[in-house]
Amino acid sequence: MFNFRFVPLCLALIAGAVTATAQEAQVAFGSANADPSLPVEVTSETLNVNQEDGSAEFLGNVIVIQGEMRLTAERVLVIYNEKRSAIERMEATENVVLVSPPDAAEGDWAEYTIDSGVIVMKGNVLLTQGPSIISGDQMNANLTTGTATMTGRVKTILQQGNN
Question: Are 75 and 57 in contact (CB under 8 A)?
């Protein structure tokens, strides 16, 4: 005889499995492979340099350009390597927008590790690819391979044809 007490449990397990797979999506990002060895140009309203920890804080309408990649934010903290001979990573906050043509993404926070060409964006991430939109809690984009992974409650709106 079939025990109906297990039906809700089975349905919950199935729903959980579907939700878990829907929390990650791999997508293409950008058309050109980035070159992390290219110079990094930073423009801002204000620059504060901290000689003690080897960092530089750019404030106000910050624009970071490296090759085809363009990142804008209200604040970007640049952290240099131990020898202070090169940029190790950059942390961007407030109205962060990343453009790697033809794609664009926006979020609350981003970290760009220069050597690897990886950008991690967190907080209300919205990726626009032509007419299609993908949102999630976090995006890990590898600019050198032109790929990205969206995670955390991923939602996709795919436009069909000429819509």
Answer: yes
Q: Would you say residue 31 has pLDDT above 60?
A: yes
Q: H or E element: which one contains 20?
A: helix 6-21
pLDDT reported for residue 132: 87
Q: Which helix (H) or strand (E) holds 17?
A: helix 6-21
Nearest-5° angle of CA 140, CA 152, CA 115?
10
Spell out the residues 6+ positions from residue 58 whose beta carbon is closer than 8 angstroms to its own. Answer: 42, 44, 46, 47, 75, 76, 77, 78
For residue 141, the SS3 value is strand
State the pTM of this model.
0.79
